[in-house]
Amino acid sequence: MVKKVTIALLCMTLGSSLQARDISTGEKFLGLEVGAAQIQADTLSELDHEGSSAEFGFRLGVQNEDWRTTLIFDYFDSSDDDQNYEKGMVTVDYYFMGSDNQQTINPYIGLNIGYMNYESTYIDESGFLYGGQVGVTLEVIDNVDIDLGYRYSLTDADQTDHIGSVVLGINYLY
Q1: CB–CB of 109/136 below 8 Å?
Q2: How far is residue 52's CA from residue 66's CA, in Å, rounded to a whole number?
Q3: What is the rounded distance in angstroms from the CA atom of residue 172 to the CA atom of residue 169?
Q4: What is the domain range of residue 141?
Q5: Can you give the pTM of this predicted structure?
Q6: I need a labelling partner for 106 at 20 to 30 A (CA). Which of 14, 61, 70, 121 fits?
């Protein structure tokens, strides 16, 4: 456990220090996101149950023409199959076509790392999660963009396997 915490903190520190000089010159943003999420985890009645519902969250980040770093907090509650989770994560995305040529559509690929808490009847566990995402951002107006992507995360928790989400976000750039 201590080794996993150390690795996670080291990754976040390295990611933050790589982006630190760009924070003062990059565009900062606040945003909201909603997604269709599917989680595979144990419940009281079924092992490896796949539950799906809506996921809601907020985001805070900074981006430049090539990179984006985002802090995300999401909440998922599926009362139909008695599953819910809260997750906080850091994502680092690379705009692989670059946005320096003033494109309005920018595809990206990225990595995520974070921590989550999963609850079901008689199950309450927490663990690290890690994974990747792919998507596109679309500039709507000068200070607003829309983000459509797919995020997949694995977790080290005993009774939770993975989470997959199709996410739609809106960001206000300042």
Answers
A1: no
A2: 33
A3: 10
A4: 2-173
A5: 0.81
A6: 14
